[in-house]
Amino acid sequence: MQEEGGPAIKVEGLTRDFGGKKAVDGVSFEVGKSEVFGFLGPNGAGKTTTIKMLTTLLPPTSGSARLLGLDLKTEGRKIRERIGVVQQQDSFDQGLSAETSMEIYGLIWNVPRTERRRRIDELMKQFSMEEFRKKPTIDLSAGQRRRLQVAREFIHDMDLLFLDEPTVGLDPIARRGVLDFLKQKVKGGLTIFFTTHLLDEAEYLCDRIAIINQGRILEVDTPANLKRRFGSAKAVEFRVDARKPLELLSRIEGLDGVTKAAFDDGTAIFRASTARPEKVIPEIYRLADSESLEVSSIYVAEATLEDAFISLVRDGAGGEEGRRDGS
């Protein structure tokens, strides 16, 4: 069981150098117990290196971390006994069947035989693996191997689970099934440290998200707050009567950021990609009113987590305030 009080993970100034280059540069953050903590960033941002340090596979160059109340540098064995790790690459003997792979993993973790068999049967059903239960893992598809790798980790008990892009190769139905399973485990007290390149699943699963780039954390916040603070409107779409003179329609296209997208049954459809829909929309209505032009509909797309992610990484947004929120 986890110690009472305190975060599941507390990281302070964690750094890892490779040949003079900082792959991870003084990151600090906390992860609460029974929280799904997303760790997002572009390729090479430092996500996997951070996971390798926190799972005791790679010693940090400097900084400190405590996991489940245990010191990363001096209590690595105790930490390994209480965590689970799903890495990006396969980590099982491809000559074994899916069932045997799970059986051996349960033996490694000293799960009693009766309980081991019960959990294997339960996980095979939960992850829809019955059809390839007896198949050698070398004959499985990428998505099937990924399901097996995630499912296998739940044969043993753990307090903290590290998932490094766990849904790569999964179809949408299997992906949602895995995410819903993880949500149920969190309700039961599990803490999850989660990386992904799929922003929609991060938004669906994560309580808070850290965005890292070039080894540094830019921001830590909830998905909703990240969208509010750094997202922009995906598009403003509006429709007008296309039977009006072409000169008038061209004036609409002259508005800031507005382009004509299509014609649909006598209606001209215009779109504006803008971070400030509150500026574009009044201009649209002013022009329409001055020319007795009817705007039949107007729609503003909601900002997405992807908008916020791109804004942060591309523009280097964030800063000390955001880092303090996560430390």
Indicate the multimeric state. Answer: single chain
Rounded mean pLDDT score: 86
Helix content: 25-40%
- Poorly predicted spans: 319-327
- The first-to-last residue Cα distance is 24 Å
Number of E-state strands: 14
Largest sheet: 6 strands, mixed
Number of helices: 12
Structural class: alpha/beta
Strand order of the largest sheet: 6-7-8-3-9-10
What is the beta-strand fraction? 25-35%
CATH H level of the largest domain: which superfamily? P-loop containing nucleotide triphosphate hydrolases
Judging by the overall fold, what is the CATH architecture of the largest domain?
3-Layer(aba) Sandwich
Radius of gyration: 25 Å
Form type:
elongated
Total count of domains: 2
Classified by CATH, the class of the largest domain is: Alpha Beta
Succession of helices and strands: EEEHEEHEHHHEHEHEEHEHEEHEHH
